[in-house]
Amino acid sequence: MFTDNVGVVSVKSNYRSGQSFTWGYYRVVYVANDAAGNSAVCSFSVVVSASDCKAPEADEQLQGELIVEPVNGTDSLMSAHVSCNDEFYPRNDLDFYVCDVMIRQQLRDWLLKDLWPYCSDQNCTGELWIDSDCPSSAAPRSKRSIRDAFYGFNFYVNVNSTRTLLKDTIGGTLQNQFPNASLSISDSVVCDKKFPLLSTTNGNASCADCPPGQYYNNSSGICASCPVDTYRTRDDPLEQCSPCPKETPTTGERTGQKDPSACHKLCDAGAYYDDSTKDCQLCPFGTYQEKRGGAACMPCPSDTSTSMT
């Protein structure tokens, strides 16, 4: 590794030759000294991970586009960006996702949760209700006896997927009918029970339902992930998640599952459930799993291993 015209007298390293590494990111440094007192340093990184970064595939219920690109870096290997179709809007998540050298990727879990749709499958019904608090004393009078008065009206309009500012539209219509009146209009949006999640951005209000893998929490008014060992499809009731059948848990402690296939066989200690084979697999050499139903095998401590799978 090192050569010198006066001879290398010592080489030291922070790791010894032949040392075993468990999963992790290691920085190896060698320092050499020659007889004249000169020194040189050589350093490099060693990464031991369970597998390589694999490009995720967009879930069939994504309702958008998934773009995966390689990253020319030392810590991250791959990045992914998710965009939504026009009639859908995204969860409040990150702008992009990465898979680092230790294969710590969160994109797959995120894709399982789908996106929140606008309530765009209904048309404006054209219905209009008016509640009036005009006093009974406001009977027709002669022109000479007309006085200032306050009249209040409540307008209830059923609309859907519209970007038209109804407040301005109603105000303009009333102003045309009553050109000498002074108008003060306030508005509010109430969502249908099928689309209870109200979001207001830059003056635009939208009502949405919860995506698969989440349910609507009436007390908090938000979409919450289905707990461990439960799931919810798009067609299931909005307010609850379905439990997995007995002895068929979800993988690990993963929440937010969106279909019954997330419930799988319960693996014994010493094994883990493999999503690719849809079956239990024995822990490989150098790893272990002491609990029943484990999602992955753990690496043995440094300088130790197992005698069998």
UniProtKB/TrEMBL annotation:
Which Gene3D superfamilies does UniProt cross-reference here?
Tumor Necrosis Factor Receptor, subunit A, domain 2
One GO term under biological process is:
signal transduction
Every copy of the HYR domain together lies at 1-50
Q: Which Pfam families match?
A: Ephrin_rec_like, HYR
Record flagged with keyword Protease: no
GO (cellular component) term, any one: cell surface
Q: Which SUPFAM superfamilies match?
A: Growth factor receptor domain
Query: Which keywords does UniProt give here?
Result: Repeat
InterPro entries associated with the record: Growth_fac_rcpt_cys_sf, HYR_dom, SCUB_EGF-like_domain, Tyr-kin_ephrin_A/B_rcpt-like
Which protein is depicted?
GCC2 and GCC3
Please name the source species.
Teladorsagia circumcincta
Q: What is the lineage of its organism?
A: Eukaryota, Metazoa, Ecdysozoa, Nematoda, Chromadorea
